[in-house]
Amino acid sequence: MLNDVRAINDLVKQESAFVDGILLEARKAVVGQETMIERILIGLFTGGHILLEGVPGLAKTLTVKTLASTISADFQRIQFTPDLLPADVVGTTLYNQQQGAFTVKKGPVFAHLVLADEINRAPAKVQSALLEAMQEQQVTLGDTTHPLPSPFMVMATQNPIEQEGTYPLPEAQLDRFMLHVRVGYPTRDEEKDVMEKVSQLSLEEASGETQQKAPHQVPQPVATPQQILQARGVLGQLYLDEKVKEYMLDVVLATRDPAKAGLGELSDMIAHGASPRASIALNLASRAHAFLRHRGYVTPEDVKAVGPDVLRHRVSRTYEAEAEEITTDHLIRRIFESVEVP
Question: Which residues of 92-131 are buried (b: 16+ CB within 10 A; e: fewer)?
Fold first, then answer.
């Protein structure tokens, strides 16, 4: 067994070497936001989708666009608005009078990385069109089904502050996102770096200077979509001990029956626990987290690192918890503190 784990570890170190190049290139354009970058890579490596929650101006669009360029992938951004139609997202069929036949016009969802900006701004029918594509990895236009590119990932954003005129995602649709990531403000030093870089760039553009950036300042392609798909195959070979699997299940089941897990005080605070999709996502995300660290085995620390992002949108609070301003993050933290680590 020990030799097998060592062999897997060596394989993962070899197959994950390109990740360092992606991170290095991403840092040329994105200052800080290491967690967001990692979570997007976890989504790419596992085929999962990411829901980002954060105020405007935190480099969400820049990050996903930069990562797309580093892996030579197609990128599309869709601004969700109340007047958006499903055809604006997935495409439609048009009648060509000259040919006397219907032709297919594919929508922006046909890309490797799709940014659904402010997804809760569009009505339910538009959200459903996108989420169906996420689940089935295909789009039906007319009577023909078209497969989406592979790898395919949707990164949706939500503004946590402004909720007027929005269409909140139903629980069942939220469940289709592998991770719900909260994006925070940069540190003081990071913001100073951002301020200086962006201000300098804005002044150069305003003055009409056309100097090209030095190659070492511009993110370069260092990987391919094929390498991402190859990495997915390696994830299945990572060693996952039975005790770590049981730990994952203990955490998920504790959200459904807190009292049985010795957390009786949370019983009146959790309305609904996590679905089986949480167990699947926790397994896959923990593997990808270990892969990013060039390890061929999963540890409880990997589970703890991705656990809040996996469970945040799958655990719903009761009215009592909301009245007492107890957040979902607080409930999840209590569960991880109480569930015994192997």
Answer: beeeeeeeeeeeeeebbbbbbbbbbbbbbbbeeebbebbb
179 — pLDDT class (breaks 50, 70, 90) = very high
Question: Strand 75-79 and strand 113-117: pairing?
Answer: parallel
Q: Is 332 a residue whose pLDDT tops 90?
A: yes
Hunting for tokens 């540890």 — which residue is that? 299
The sign one gets for the Cα dihedral 158, 163, 167, 173 is: positive
Contacts of 298 (CB under 8 A, 6+ apart): 238, 239, 240, 241, 244, 286, 287, 289, 290
Domains of the chain from N-terminus onward? 19-200 (3.40.50.300), 238-338 (1.10.8.80)
Tokens, residue 87: 């055809």
Full-model pTM? 0.88
CA dihedral 163, 169, 175, 179 (to 10 degrees): -40
Report yes or no: 259 and 241 within 8 Å, Cβ to Cβ.
no
The confidence score (pLDDT) of residue 54 equals: 85
229's tokens: 């798909």
